[in-house]
Write a structure and sequence with these properties.
The protein is α/β, with parallel strands linked by helices. The protein has a single domain, classed as Aldolase class I (TIM Barrel, Alpha-Beta Barrel), CATH 3.20.20. Helices cover about 45% and strands about 15% of the residues. Helix 3 links the parallel strand 2 and strand 3.
Length: about 210
């Protein structure tokens, strides 16, 4: 079992490893390993595989075997998701929001969680429980950089990973905020490059993102 404080400490260490965490939606299991290898080689070792497709859990299993990769499961919504993600080899979890039931299950399963918050109240509730590292989601729809800056002023204890609408164009402005340690984004693994198997192209995108 992990405490909220230890979970948050661990997720903050993971988030600090690179400025961008790729948010990955994988439909074809054959893409999993070469995609992970390309992203890690490009300087993005932390990978979030969203549990939105039938291939997601098997993709986590494949990616977890790639040397240098740290694979997490995104879109955790239920305790069953947490159990399945942990069994597949995920070393951390990400959720779009947070409920007591979900937080309890992650702590019980010893799975560090990056929980989502979109308002000052949600951020304060998570902080009160012990989660000082949070996901700001959906970032752009929730007011983007001005909103995150405003939340950070009275709650400087919380550090965020904004996700949702983050692009190569606005990522530097998010990363310039004092309460932002990294961003989550899907642009480093675009669907057209996945379908084409353009792993060198994805590695190039990862390398550029790693320098933000």
């Amino acid at each position: 079992m992990i405490t909220p404080q230890d979970a948050s400490k661990r997720t903050k260490q993971i988030c600090a490893m690179a400025p961008v965490i790729p948010v990955l939606v994988i439909d074809d299991i054959s893409h999993a390993r070469p995609l992970a290898e390309a992203l890690v080689a490009g300087g993005l070792p932390v990978l979030e595989v969203t549990l939105r497709t039938p291939a997601a859990l098997e993709a986590i299993r494949e990616m977890a075997q790639v040397q240098g990769g740290i694979v997490g499961a995104g879109t955790l919504l239920t305790p069953a998701d947490i159990t399945a993600a942990k069994e597949a080899g995920a070393t951390f979890g990400v959720s779009p929001g947070a409920t007591d039931k979900l937080l309890d299950a992650c702590e019980e399963a010893d799975l560090p969680l990056l929980p989502g918050a979109a308002t000052a109240t949600e951020a304060m509730r998570l902080l009160e429980r012990g989660y000082s590292m949070q996901k700001f989601f959906p970032a752009e729809a929730s007011g983007g950089i001005p909103a995150l800056k405003a939340i950070g002023a009275p709650i400087p204890q919380v550090t965020f990973c904004p996700t949702g609408g983050v692009t190569p164009q606005n990522a530097p402005d998010y990363l310039a905020l004092s309460n932002t340690i990294c961003v989550g984004g899907s642009w480093v693994a675009p669907k057209d490059k996945l379908i084409a198997g353009d792993w060198s192209g994805i590695q190039d995108l990862a390398q550029t993102a790693s320098q933000l």
